[in-house]
C-alpha cells in the first residue's frame, strides 16, 4: 500500500520540460530564467508556458531567455526582446494597454449589455396586455353545442 501511495505521489508531481543541458550554472540567473519562462506562452502548445512545454520551439525560447539574461539584460528587457520578436501573443498574461483594453473590457461589457437587454425584454413582457380572445360567433357557438351534446 505504501508503494502505491509513493508511486501516485511521484506521478502527481509537476514535470518540467527544462532539460539539464539548458540550465545555467549561476543559480540566480537560472531562477530568473525559470520565472520569466513561466510567463511566456509556448507558441505550439498555446496555453502552456515554455517552462512546461516539451515543444522544440519552447526549448528555443527557453534558450533565448537564458541567452538574453547571460548577455546582461534585465527581466523586462529580456521579455521585451521576445515580445518584439514574436508579438504580444507570447505573453501568458497580456498587458492591459492600447487595443488590449477593448479585449479586456469586452467580456464585462457584453455581460452588462446582455443583462440590460434581458431586463428590458422581461419588463416589456410584464407590462404587455394579455391577448383577448374574440367571442364565438352564433354559428360557431351552435356547432360547439352540437358537439358537446353528442
Automatic annotation (TrEMBL):
It comes from Sulfitobacter sediminilitoris. GO terms for molecular function: metal ion binding. It holds the Pfam family CcmH. GO terms for biological process: cytochrome complex assembly. Possible subunit of a heme lyase. Residues 1-17 form the signal peptide. Belongs to the CcmH/CycL/Ccl2/NrfF family. This is Cytochrome c-type biogenesis protein. InterPro entries: C-type_cytochrome_biogenesis, CcmH/CycL/Ccl2/NrfF_N, CcmH/CycL/NrfF/Ccl2_sf. Keywords: Cytochrome c-type biogenesis, Heme, Iron, Membrane, Metal-binding, Signal, Transmembrane, Transmembrane helix.
Amino acid at each position: 500500500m505504501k508503494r502505491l501511495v509513493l508511486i501516485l505521489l511521484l506521478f502527481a508531481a509537476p514535470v518540467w520540460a527544462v532539460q539539464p543541458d539548458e540550465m545555467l550554472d549561476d543559480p540566480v540567473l537560472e531562477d530568473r530564467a525559470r520565472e520569466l519562462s513561466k510567463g511566456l506562452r509556448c507558441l505550439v502548445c498555446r496555453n502552456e508556458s515554455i517552462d512546461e512545454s516539451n515543444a522544440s520551439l519552447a526549448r528555443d525560447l527557453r534558450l533565448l531567455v537564458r541567452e538574453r539574461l547571460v548577455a546582461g539584460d534585465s527581466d523586462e528587457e529580456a521579455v521585451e526582446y521576445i515580445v518584439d520578436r514574436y508579438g504580444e501573443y507570447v505573453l501568458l498574461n497580456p498587458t492591459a494597454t492600447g487595443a488590449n483594453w477593448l479585449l479586456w473590457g469586452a467580456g464585462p461589457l457584453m455581460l452588462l449589455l446582455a443583462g440590460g437587454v434581458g431586463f428590458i425584454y422581461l419588463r416589456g413582457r410584464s407590462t404587455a396586455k394579455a391577448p383577448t380572445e374574440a367571442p364565438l360567433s352564433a354559428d360557431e357557438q351552435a356547432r360547439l353545442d352540437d358537439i358537446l351534446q353528442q
